[in-house]
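User: Let's play a game. I give you a shape written as tokens, and you guess the letters that built it. Ready? Here's round one.
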């Protein structure tokens, strides 16, 4: 009996010990699980926080990149606008510096206003009417190099137009000849050197404040503008040989009392009002085009290079 008691006691103690061991092991496993769970939760929280921070940084970086991109666009546009403004200002100043009179500035503004109006009416694009003022063109005479200063050149698909500006006021007899005024031909002889009966002259009649009439003999601008047109045609024919004509135009930029009577037979046009000049170019748009946009750009670049070399030489 005693042995059985001892064995039973040992078994009970072993069972109790096993239960205690299993309980402690279970507690340790549970504590480990809780610890791992807490660790996992902490790691997840850290990971979520890191993802949120990374997202915020990426979003901020994207916003910064886009902001920088648009800032660059705005800066480029501003620089381009400023450059165009400076270019326009320099262009006007160069006109004022080299012009013989302010009439050339007035004509430039008239032509650019006309161009703007035609663009707004969808009759032309900006490349269909190129306006160039104060053009310097080289030419040779007797194997010597000379420079012609042309007040304005207008390049259009319908033709090339050269404008000579005269700041004259009064009643102007343009291109008159002795054989046109017959018995009054002595006026030509008295006002200028003796000329042939078929040679064209230009006279300006003005009235003084005392009511006196003054008559002035002027160098005939028709001859000058014809020479300029011929030289310009010859110069541009180096680029394109089939240039039919350069149309010469004389513009008298006088006051509102200025009137012009055109007696000329040398095919040079003359105008004395901005409206007449605008109507002329508007009507030219109805003509058949003879040049392309690429032709006009080529002419423009060539004349700009010639003027640039002269101004900076």
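Assistant: Ready! My guess for every position:
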């Amino acid at each position: 009996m005693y042995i059985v008691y001892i064995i039973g006691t040992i078994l009970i103690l072993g069972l109790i010990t096993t239960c205690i061991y299993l309980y402690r092991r279970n507690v340790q496993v549970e504590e480990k699980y809780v610890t791992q769970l807490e660790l996992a939760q902490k790691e997840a929280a850290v990971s979520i926080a890191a993802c949120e921070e990374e997202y915020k940084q990426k979003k901020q970086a994207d916003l910064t990149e886009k902001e920088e991109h648009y800032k660059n666009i705005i800066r480029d546009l501003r620089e381009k606008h400023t450059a165009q403004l400076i270019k326009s200002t320099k262009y006007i100043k160069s006109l004022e510096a080299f012009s013989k009179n302010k009439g050339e500035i007035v004509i430039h503004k008239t032509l650019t206003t006309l161009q703007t109006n035609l663009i707004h009416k969808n009759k032309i694009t900006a490349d269909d009417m190129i306006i160039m003022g104060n053009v310097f063109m080289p030419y040779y005479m007797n194997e010597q190099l000379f420079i012609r200063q042309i007040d304005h050149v207008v390049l259009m698909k319908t033709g090339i137009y050269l404008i000579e500006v005269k700041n004259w006021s009064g009643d102007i007899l343009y291109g008159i000849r002795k054989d046109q005024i017959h018995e009054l031909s002595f006026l030509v002889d008295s006002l200028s050197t003796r000329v042939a009966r078929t040679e064209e002259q230009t006279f300006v009649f003005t009235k003084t404040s005392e009511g006196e009439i003054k008559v002035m003999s002027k160098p005939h601008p028709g001859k000058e503008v014809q020479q300029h047109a011929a030289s310009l045609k010859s110069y541009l024919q180096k680029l394109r040989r089939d240039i039919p004509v350069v149309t010469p135009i004389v513009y008298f930029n006088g006051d509102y009392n200025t009137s012009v009577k055109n007696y000329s037979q040398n095919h040079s046009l003359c105008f004395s009002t901005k409206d007449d000049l605008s109507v002329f170019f508007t009507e030219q748009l109805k003509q058949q085009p003879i040049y392309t946009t690429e032709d006009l750009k080529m002419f423009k670049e060539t004349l700009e290079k010639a003027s640039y070399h002269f101004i900076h030489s």
